[in-house]
Write a structure and sequence with these properties.
Blueprint (H helix, E strand, L loop, with lengths): L4 H6 L20 H15 L6 E3 H9 L5 H15 L5 H5 L12 H13 L6 H13 L16 E4 L6 E4 L8 E4 L14 E4 L2 E2 H12 L5 H6 L16 E2 L6 E6 L4 E5 L1 E4 L11 H8 L11 H4 L23 E2 L6 E5 L8 E6 L10 H18 L4 E5 L8 H11 L9 E3 L3 H11 L3 H10 L22 H5 L2 E3 L2 E3 L32 E5 L6 H13 L2 E5 L18 E4 H14 L3 H8 L2 H7 L1 H4 L10 E7 L18 E3 L9 H14 L1 H4 L74
Parallel strand pairs: 13-14, 14-18, 18-19, 19-22
Antiparallel strand pairs: 1-10, 2-7, 2-10, 3-4, 5-6, 5-8, 8-9, 11-12, 12-13, 15-21, 16-17, 20-21
The structure holds 2-acetamido-2-deoxy-beta-D-glucopyranose (10 copies).
């Protein structure tokens, strides 16, 4: 959900610029050779240096890489098979009015890219792959990303806008863009706003970049993602770090009339061996060719190639926060606070910048424990009001969102409805799984975040009815002329007792009243953060307040990140597809599958062509999530305004306590004074329940848009609450897949 975070750390390495050769002195075709020579001489004198060149030279080298039609067409064919699994394809093509962004026909664009490549009409491989990358980015979906291999070599960077912030003098007056450093107490001069970037109005220039490259479906969220903040100090904009070439330099014009220009540079990514690349053809052979033996990053350094911006959790700047009463780990993605100061004695704050941590297999248990300890300390200290700070929260482990809700409101049964695109390959996999011995199915389902959604063994519909057969899951529901699976609830996670289940079945009662809780977001809330937020908004009637956004009055969405409820890596789809084909003993059927979509997925050519097959093979949004009131439109396409909005002041950027106090004032003291003009939106209390989600025994016919025929026989069994839906799955190792750590399941 943010730009290219790892780069910030990586560029901290001693980046001694090499003598920068100018691209104008030699013809384009020798740009790669110039870089190669410079790298060789540089590395002989200092093997630890990060080679750096002018952006134009690197771009000339990239531009000289030829586009080879046959592998290009094969790459697009592979991508088309993976993108069939993207749950929002048909909605993206013709989005409803409530969606703020332009439509995008992903498959149509890919067809066009393939035809253009086939006809030899791309100027080169960079042009071809940039078209692919831009097609993915146009979905503005943090779960949908593929970064192809031409981008594994260089990163373009420019420090000029690294510390830019968008700040208001007092929280409601319109913000302007400044260098954050100009607000530091030691600076004697008055900060001067940035008026223009490269000669264009600075605000529209940055907003324009956000609208092209932002991995959020809301324009204010796209705006906020371009700036660093206490909950995401490594945030940044694509002018600062990016794999695409966005121009040779940056020029800023300040309001006092002075200007500043800085060249953009390209650095060689860690582990890339460029010493023997003398031409664009050599570049292709080394970096765009899965069989290559030269140039490719070594295994150990491969992990460093920064290519997965969408799916990394954000780490808060711990030194910006006051002393916490609770902190889940050293990373501090979950922290609890009691606010100091008169008028705030009864206020508690829970700050959650992510629902996951890097590699901790015990994350879920520590999270559960931290929330429990925070609530029990809040109870003891007689806290009445709660601010939940979700700024920068791009998601994490899905079940963590349900866990937090279960502890806050243990009496509310969480509504949950999801579906998947009913592709041919998904149907094939489901049927093959269903034909396996029961104990094998159980074992697979326990370790696979993909298969657990396709097996009736322990899966329920939104009403709480258990599925009886695979066919029930695969009975098509038609939406927008496209076919989807039946609506399903989030499957339980083996080995983890959600509060309200197992030996946690008697939790303490809710401590905070819904009207005394507010969700504080910056709009970038994505994935698991959206699942949690909607439970709070739709079911507990909790209000929301948002901070930041474009410099304009009026409302802003509280939830603007990806609202799909599960991401799936290409590698998992590919592995499961290959395993499924292997399990088919009938020769004819197995050959038929191999030659179809499932075979293309199993081969996984696109994974081999990604910039980093190990850490970022490519991903799709697997499941749509739905509001209780609307079974037709995935949440991703609905507009959800915050009830109030304010802007960051300069002091708030690294002082979360000021943000919390402001949110308290705006929510419970004086909304008219503290909310931006025109930003107050009444809570919607008339949402209702879509007939498709009503309990089946009350005779309501759901799904008018669907071909699903639901039995109308009386079902006296009370819908099972989350508490009753226990965890019956074994934890035996999977037979298709290696057992994966709990924490790697059901991410984001
Ligand atoms: C097809 O792709 C080419 C090359 O990217 C582009 O110029 C053209 O506008 C595209 N056409 C359509 C219909 O998308
Ligand atoms: C104008 O503002 C910029 C940015 O704060 C500053 O670097 C520059 O020195 C100022 N120029 C003048 C003439 O004050
Ligand atoms: C794969 O699924 C499709 C669509 O459901 C079906 O038509 C086809 O027969 C299946 N293939 C095999 C080999 O089962
Ligand atoms: C499973 O079968 C029962 C009994 O026929 C039925 O009431 C229930 O709706 C079925 N489950 C689903 C998810 O369709
Ligand atoms: C879950 O609860 C059951 C009791 O209902 C208990 O036996 C089991 O150990 C618990 N599991 C975990 C991981 O806490
Ligand atoms: C539930 O069981 C697990 C595993 O036996 C244990 O570690 C945990 O403390 C128990 N939790 C409660 C609330 O009893
Ligand atoms: C939320 O509001 C609705 C409509 O006013 C009401 O029916 C429901 O009981 C409320 N829920 C809670 C948890 O307060
Ligand atoms: C897919 O299979 C490869 C090879 O067995 C393995 O290294 C990788 O971890 C698997 N990936 C997933 C997501 O299951
Ligand atoms: C911010 O300043 C403007 C202009 O002086 C004023 O109208 C507004 O009330 C102030 N807002 C707050 C929150 O003090
Ligand atoms: C409240 O939500 C319902 C259901 O989504 C929608 O139809 C209605 O227009 C909303 N009302 C307001 C005032 O936004």
């Amino acid at each position: 959900m943010f730009w290219w975070p790892l780069l910030v750390a990586l560029l901290g390495v001693s980046a001694i610029p090499v003598p920068q050769s100018s691209s104008t002195t030699e013809p384009t075709s020798t740009a790669c050779a110039q870089i190669s020579r410079a790298v060789r001489s540089l590395l002989t004198s200092n093997p630890f240096v990060t080679p750096t060149f002018t952006a134009s030279l690197a771009f000339d080298c990239l531009s000289s890489v030829p586009n080879r039609p046959q592998p290009a067409v094969k790459l697009v064919q592979s991508l088309k098979a993976f993108t069939q699994w993207q749950s929002t394809l048909t909605f993206l093509k013709a989005p409803p009015q409530s969606y703020m962004l332009p439509p995008i026909d992903i498959q149509g664009n890919l067809d066009n890219i393939s035809a253009t490549a086939s006809a030899g009409e791309f100027s080169g491989e960079y042009d071809f792959q940039a078209s692919i990358l831009r097609t993915f980015l146009a979905a503005h979906d943090g779960h949908f990303l593929f970064i192809p291999d031409v981008f594994k070599v260089f990163t373009f960077s420019n420090p000029l806008l690294e510390d830019v912030v968008s700040v208001s003098s007092n929280g409601t007056s319109l913000p302007k863009l400044y260098h954050y450093s100009t607000f530091q107490a030691s600076m004697s001069t008055t900060p001067v706003a940035i008026a223009k970037i490269n000669g264009q109005d600075a605000t529209s220039f940055l907003a324009g970049l956000g609208s092209v490259f932002g991995l959020a479906q809301d324009v204010d969220a796209q705006w906020n993602m371009m700036f660093s903040i206490y909950s995401n100090p490594s945030g940044g904009n694509p002018l600062s770090f990016f794999p695409l070439f966005l121009g040779p330099s940056l020029t800023l014009t300040y309001e006092n009339g002075s200007t500043q220009t800085q060249q953009t540079v390209a650095t060689l990514n860690p582990g890339v061996d460029f010493s023997n690349i003398a031409s664009g053809d050599d570049f292709y052979d080394a970096f765009c060719n899965p069989g290559a033996t030269t140039g490719t990053p070594t295994a150990s350094s491969a992990d460093l190639v920064p290519t997965k911006p969408g799916l990394k959790r954000r780490l808060p700047a711990l030194t910006d926060y006051p002393p916490p009463v609770v902190q889940n780990s050293d990373e501090g993605t979950t922290m609890g606070f009691f606010v100091d100061g008169s008028g705030f004695e009864d206020v508690a704050v829970l700050a959650i910048s992510a629902f996951a941590e890097e590699t901790d297999p015990l994350y879920l248990f520590k999270f559960q424990e931290a929330v429990q300890s925070f609530l029990s300390q809040s109870r003891a200290a007689k806290k009445q009001r709660l601010v939940i700070d979700l700024t920068s929260n791009g998601g994490g482990i899905i079940i963590a969102g349900f866990e937090l809700f279960a502890q806050l409101f243990p009496d509310i049964d969480p509504f949950n409805a999801n579906n998947m695109r009913l592709t041919e390959s998904l149907a094939n996999i489901s049927q093959i799984l269903a034909a396996q011995p029961i104990q094998d199915q159980n074992a697979e389902v326990a370790v696979s975040g993909l298969l657990s959604n396709l097996s009736p063994l322990d899966l329920s519909d939104p009403q709480g009815d258990k599925f009886n057969t695979t066919d029930e899951i695969l009975t098509p529901v038609t939406l927008q002329g496209d076919q989807f699976t039946a609506y399903i609830r989030q499957p339980a996670v083996a080995g983890f007792n959600l509060t309200g289940t197992g030996n946690r079945s008697n939790p303490p009662p809710a401590l905070f009243k819904p009207e005394n809780v507010v969700l504080l977001t910056d709009g970038t809330c994505g994935s698991t953060c959206t699942i949690f937020s909607y439970l709070m908004i739709f079911q507990a009637n909790v209000t929301t307040i948002s901070v930041g956004g474009r410099p304009q009055v009026g409302p802003m969405q509280s939830v603007g990140g990806v609202e799909g409820s599960q991401v799936l890596q290409f590698s998992e789809i590919s592995n499961v597809s290959a395993s499924a084909i292997n399990l088919v003993s009938d020769q004819v059927q197995s050959e038929k599958l191999l030659s179809g979509e499932l075979g293309v997925l199993a081969e996984g050519y696109a994974i081999q062509r990604s910039a980093n097959p190990v850490t970022s093979p490519g991903s799709i949004n697997f499941r749509n999530a739905f509001a209780p009131s609307d079974s037709k439109t995935p949440l991703q396409f609905l507009y959800e305004p915050a009830n109030c909005r304010f802007f960051y002041t300069p002091q708030m950027i690294n002082t979360p306590e000021l943000v919390w106090k402001y949110a308290v004032g705006a929510t419970w003291t004086d909304a008219a004074h503290f909310c931006v003009q025109g930003s107050r939106v009444q809570a919607n209390t008339t949402r209702g329940l879509d007939p498709a989600f009503r309990a089946k025994n009350n005779g309501a016919e759901g799904n008018d848009g669907s071909t699903q025929t639901e039995g109308s026989e009386d079902n006296n069994e009370k819908p099972k609450s989350s508490a009753e839906r226990g965890l019956k799955r074994g934890t035996t190792k999977g037979l298709w897949l290696p057992a994966i750590a709990l924490a790697t399941l059901l991410l984001f």
